[in-house]
Design a protein that fits this description.
heterodimer, A: mainly alpha, Histone, subunit A, two-stranded antiparallel ribbon, 2 strands, B: alpha/beta, Amidase signature (AS) enzymes, 2 domains, 11-stranded mixed sheet, 11 strands
Amino acid sequence: MSQFDNQTLENLKRLCRMSCTPEEDQDILHSLSRVLDYVEQLKEIDTTGIASCDYVLQSMLKNLMREDEVKPTLPREEFLHNAPDQIGGMIRVPPVMKAP
Amino acid sequence: MTHTPLHHFSAAQLRDSFVKGEFTAVSIAEYFLKRIEQHNQQLGAFLSILGPRMLLKAEALDRKRAHNKPLGRLAGVPVAIKDNMHIAEEITSCGSKFLNNYRAPFEATAVRLLEEEDALITGKTNLDEFAMGSSNEHSAYFNAHNPWDLSCTPGGSSGGSAAAVAARLSLIATGSDTGGSIRQPAGFCGVVGYKPTYGRVSRYGLVAFGSSLDQIGPFATRVEDIALAMESIGRHCPFDSTSLDFPPESYHLQANLKNIKIGIPRHFLENLKPEAKIHFEDNLQILRSLGASTIDIDLDILKYSIAVYYILATAEASTNLARFDGIRYGMRAKDAKTLDEIYELSRKEGFGREVKKRIMLGTYVLSAGYQDAFYKKAQKVRTLIIEAFDKAFAICDAVAMPVAPSSAFPLKSISDPLEMYLQDIFTIPANLAGLPAISVPSGFDSRQMPLGLQLIGPQMCDVPLVQYAHAFEQATQFTRKIPPLFDGLNS
């Protein structure tokens, strides 16, 4: 059985910067426990000496280089078009530092 | 004289008729927009319909033809785009409330290439939120339905695209396939769905889910239309560093399988239900009648695919979806007063439950103390899966499997998350190994719902794989059937 309990869930929500409704909490706790129990089966496989798959097309692996050139990027106004809140051409957020 | 209704055409036929001057692009656009208007409420395939935009493009295309300018290979063909790919200046919702107002500031490469070939884009199709799901039930808006039985799922995550093509509301649609999201809905809806070799189609402008697994591909009513779509979008793109740097391929389709060896992973398939097993054996008989030979291969390691996938895909998703923070774009919770509250409440309100689950699972398997046991272990088993396929392809040209364990299931009938994940057992392996794989209609079950045959090829062997599927399709013709509910003439 997995060790996935309420305390683990609370820690995880902090790591994910996510909050949930109490009903979601219960459902997520149940689902994640089920899935984590299921993936335990990977322990059956001996992977000693097996390389980790970091790129699926191993035979195509190569460095990609390009010239360091200035090219057009998304104009500021267009980017800000999707910003939830903005001021003076910048994205507005609540104060991050406290007043002294 | 009776005319064939436009929705009975294949994309290739419609293109040829348009080029010959038999129809105007505007009349084609109007015809398909009318079908969408008539049927979408029932079907739920489209999240947005781009009528005015489509008509403008059609008018421009008619002018292009009138001026005898060269016409693209998809000229006049109605094409739908999954709503996790950008069409510049249009909404990309990803089926999520988080992005319900997000207007794409640039064009996805696949979309740009389709438009350069003069395709007429009809709209954006429904999907499970951020492409996470196998039934379309996780769309934050409404459910897409299966055109063969509206009480059933069209599959997922690209369920809207599959339903749109099956109901002939568009003749081609794009999908993205991370663990089967093109092939499973194609199988469930009785259309052809193709996931190319990883990197064959640029992911630029596709909202990322599991970046080492994601691949864009087409849905169509015929294999020849899949070839047409691939010739259009299968191109190198400098904006995606995993895009394969090869010249575009042309698909010369042929209708026999002489000297082709098809590998059958018998042991891996032993738990198939009796009806599915008989159907699959019938499919193999058809392949043999076309000149192929079948050979048993060992792919037992694939039984671990789902465990590997739900570790790797969620790990990658948790990283990719960290960008949805309520700061730069997408939704920001109204009540959030501090920076931390912006993050937490925007993600709480903007994400649906399945997305939250997967972000949390992915964060868990990457967290300190668990990374070796889960993530790194899964990466090693992924290597073993790739090696097993390499060994298999040393003795066969393609592997055959069903697309899914059964035909489309009724909506809301699977509540256990693990049971839902197990639906993807036959599609996930191709993503883990970066292989091209195609789902082609193979008949109907006792409930009169479509079934699909899946063929999987070696990396880079996209063209031969599509040819094998074409041969099967030519011999069976199941792709010619149209769901009766959607075969009426425009009123």
